[in-house]
Amino acid sequence: MIFFEKTNKLSNFFFVIFVLFLIMTAVFFASSRFTEVLSDNFTNDLRGTVGMLVCIMISISSLIAGVSLKYLIKEANNEIQLLEERMKMDKF
Question: Which domain of life is it from (predicted)?
Fold first, then answer.
């Protein structure tokens, strides 16, 4: 991964964001009355429920972005290696 150091760092950043927001989701879930929202469609603590839903959405999207960047790096490195091999074969 010589050529994609910044992309690799960004991917690792997305994984860290995923873990942090997953922890925040657990904290908000513990403090919210999410079962009350599911059964009655109403809650007195709407802030905790909305916070939990926002955190889990950010967590999932950052996981998808991190995994996508890892696969992008892997594919790009494979393409570069194939191009290098073709260039070596063309020289001879």
Answer: Bacteria
Contact 52, 30 (CB under 8 A): no
Task: Supply the range of the domain harboring residue 47.
Answer: 5-91
DSSP state letter for 59: H
Query: How far, in Å, CA of 76 to CA of 3, rounded?
Result: 9
pLDDT in tens, the chain (92 residues): 567 889 999 999 999 999 999 999 888 877 766 666 566 666 566 777 788 889 999 999 999 999 999 999 999 999 999 999 999 988 76
Handedness of CA 38, 41, 45, 50 (dihedral sign): positive
Dist CA 84 CA 53 (whole Å): 47
For residue 35, give both structure tokens. Answer: 């079962």
